[in-house]
Each structure stands twice: as structure tokens, then as C-alpha cells.
Design goal:
Helix content: 55-70%
Structural class: alpha+beta
Strand order of the largest sheet: 3-8-4-5-6-7
Radius of gyration: 51 Å
Number of helices: 6
Number of strands: 8
Shape: rod-shaped
Length: about 400
């Protein structure tokens, strides 16, 4: 929860900062440099919002993964409970059947015991008279002995049946006890699974609330990112308007002095005359002058050789390598090389960074760069497109 509040505060701070810096109006008192500075600030705020969105999305994805795991666990718990309920139902049926069997065995035992007692009582009461009756009824003495033995066998059978019934009753009683114990164990398992189900449901509800919170933060960040994007587009329009006005005035001044005419491509100079390299750093001027001598060279996409052809980042990299300075290979990475300075502070030898392109600053608003296959290595206006960064690597 603390982590969510922290990200929430960051978003709120970014929103407030964005609102404060959005009071930009193109006016006569504003310069291109000031607008570019404000645009860089807006871009930085947009980058921060994008980073926050990535972080929020990452945490949201983690929560969604945990939710999926909890969903699976809950499904397993519910399935286990259903199986336990089915086992308990079967165990209850077994218990009821065993109890009925026990009651029946108990009744048979009691009935046999009562019958045996009656027979014993009858034999006891008859005494020897019973034997006389047997003797008179017998056809012979052998027959009499057989009848007597039969009477004793009846008595022994009563005792055996009673013993058998008692054993059956005891076995059934043990079965009832076993089933009752198994049923208790199942009920304990059921209780544990119910507790686990409640805990999983609680955790699931908590994670779902967290996921909803991240979704709200993400929506707010996306809304602010769109605001920043719109503001950057507005700033670009204002910069282009000021650039157009500046070029118009420069053209009028050039025409008035007899030096009119401009390049159709603002990134390519219109002539092959000399260009003055200006700057406070002697190393920066040396870098710019060295780069300038390759004007007219061949542009080759992916090229890194100043003699056979280079692309924009290959050109800057090869020039700086001559002075023992190592640069990253591609233009995007070069945008982070060295240290950043504002365009108003740019000096000869600085790298001017655009969207997907880099150039070397000569001073006086001019650059030298590997422009494209048509123009090759050429010079032109540093502001022919939106400047994203100025990097000093010497």
C-alpha cells in the first residue's frame, strides 16, 4: 500500500509540474531558445510519466499473475471441498448402515441369549423326569442314548450361536467406531479446507483491489502523458512559426544586402562558400574544422568510413575518433553522450541531436552533417528541424 501511495504522489507531482510549465504562449518577447528549453522540460516530464507508466504496468502485471495463481488455488480448494463433501456423504451412509447392522446383531444376540436361558431353565426344571420321558419314548436303549445326546447338542448349539452373535456384534461395533473416526478426520479436513478457502478469497479480493488501484493510476498517467504530448505538439508549432518568421527576416535582410537566395532544404546550405567556425573552445573549433573538410563526401547508410561513405552517426563518430574521443554507434545513443547544453550555449564541435539524426555544430547557427544520399556530407541550418538535444563530448 505504501508503494502505491508513493507512485500516486509522484504522478500528482508530475501533474502539478506539468500544469505549472504549460503556461506558454508564443509572443514577441519569447525566443526560439526559450521555447526549446520549455519543450525539453515538457519532454522530460513526458519521459518521467512514461517511466512511471512502465513501472505501474510492471507492478500491475505482477498483481495479475498473483491473481491468476490465487484463482487456480481457489479452484483447487473448491474442488477438494467438493470431493470431501462427497466422501462425507458416502461415509455417513456407511455409518448409518453399520449402525443398523450393529442394532440387528445386538437384537439377534439378545434373542439367542433369552432362548438359551429358557432352554437351560426347562432342562433344569425337568431334571431326571426328562430322561425318564426320553427312556419311555425310546424304542431301544441305543435310541435313548441318541435322544440324550441330541438334547445336549441342542444346548451346545445354543451356546455356539450366542458366541457367534456376540462376535458379530463386536466386529460391527468396531466397524462403527472406525467409520466414526474416519468421518471425524474428513470433517477436520473439510474445516481446514474451508479456512483455506476463506483465506484465499480474502487474498484474492485484496489483490483485485490492488489491481484496480494500479489501473486507476495508469489511466491518470496516460491522461497526463496525452496532455504533455499535446503541449509538445503546440510548442513545436510555435517554434516553427518563430523559425519561419526569423527566416523571412533573414531572407529580407539578405535580399536587401544583395546576397539573397536560400536553400530549398533548410538542412543543406545553398552554396559551397567558406563557413566561419566560431566557438570558445579550441578543441571544439578543431573538431568542427576537421569535419568541415569532408563536405561533399558520400553518404552511405550504415557507413563508417570518411573516405568511402558514412551515415550521420558514422560521420560524427569518425570525426571524433580522429581526436581520440569515442562515441556510441547510433544517433539515439549519441543523444546521451557527453553532457547536455542548451542550444543557446552551443559551440563549434558540439553534437546537435534530432529525431533519428545527428550533426556537428559549426557556430553561427550552422551545422555540417551526413544529410542523405542526395546531398551527402553538407552544411546547413542547425534549426532545419526540431532540436532534441545538444551534447558536448570534448
Amino acid at each position: 500500500m505504501k508503494r502505491w501511495k508513493r507512485y500516486g504522489r509522484r504522478i500528482a507531482a508530475a501533474v502539478l509540474a506539468g500544469c505549472l510549465c504549460f503556461s506558454i504562449q508564443a509572443s514577441a518577447t519569447e525566443t526560439e531558445d526559450e521555447l526549446r528549453r520549455q519543450q525539453r522540460e515538457t519532454q522530460q516530464q513526458l519521459n518521467e510519466i512514461n517511466q512511471q507508466m512502465k513501472s505501474i504496468e510492471g507492478q500491475r502485471d505482477e498483481i495479475l499473475e498473483e491473481i491468476n495463481t490465487l484463482d487456480s488455488e481457489l479452484t483447487n480448494v473448491i474442488l477438494t471441498l467438493e470431493l470431501l463433501e462427497a466422501d462425507l456423504a458416502i461415509k455417513q451412509e456407511d455409518l448409518e448402515a453399520a449402525q443398523q447392522e450393529y442394532e440387528a446383531a445386538k437384537q439377534r444376540e439378545e434373542a439367542q441369549y433369552e432362548a438359551m436361558k429358557l432352554r437351560i431353565q426347562y432342562i433344569y426344571e425337568q431334571g431326571e423326569t426328562d430322561y425318564l420321558s426320553l427312556l419311555l419314548q425310546a424304542e431301544s436303549f441305543v435310541d435313548f442314548l441318541n435322544k440324550k445326546d441330541f438334547s445336549q447338542e441342542i444346548h451346545e448349539q445354543d451356546r455356539k450361536l450366542l458366541t457367534d452373535y456376540q462376535e458379530v456384534k463386536e466386529e460391527v461395533a468396531m466397524l462403527v467406531e472406525q467409520i466414526e473416526q474416519e468421518k471425524k478426520e474428513l470433517e477436520i479436513l473439510q474445516s481446514e479446507q474451508e479456512a483455506q478457502k476463506a483465506e484465499v478469497e480474502r487474498m484474492l479480493a485484496e489483490k483485485q483491489a490492488q489491481e484496480a488501484n494500479f489501473e486507476n493510476q495508469l489511466e491518470e498517467a496516460q491522461r497526463q502523458a496525452q496532455v504533455f504530448k499535446s503541449k509538445i505538439a503546440e510548442q513545436n508549432a510555435q517554434i516553427r512559426k518563430l523559425e519561419a518568421e526569423r527566416r523571412r527576416k533573414e531572407a529580407e535582410a539578405a535580399a536587401a544586402s544583395g546576397n539573397g537566395g536560400g536553400s530549398k532544404n533548410p538542412g543543406v546550405s545553398g552554396g559551397g562558400g567558406s563557413i566561419a567556425v566560431t566557438g570558445n573552445s579550441s578543441l571544439g573549433r578543431s573538431i568542427a574544422n576537421y569535419a568541415l573538410q569532408f563536405r561533399g563526401g558520400k553518404y552511405v547508410f550504415g557507413g563508417t568510413s570518411l573516405s568511402t561513405g558514412v551515415d550521420c552517426s558514422g560521420f560524427t563518430r569518425a570525426v571524433f575518433r580522429n581526436f581520440g574521443i569515442s562515441l556510441p554507434r547510433d544517433s539515439t545513443s549519441q543523444r546521451s553522450a557527453g553532457r547536455g547544453v542548451s542550444y543557446s550555449e552551443a559551440q563549434a564541435g558540439d553534437i546537435i541531436c534530432y529525431a533519428g539524426h545527428v550533426a556537428i555544430y559549426l557556430g553561427g547557427g550552422q551545422i555540417v552533417h551526413a544529410a542523405d544520399e542526395k546531398h551527402g556530407i553538407t552544411t546547413g541550418s542547425a534549426t532545419y528541424q526540431t532540436i532534441l538535444a545538444v551534447r558536448r563530448c570534448y
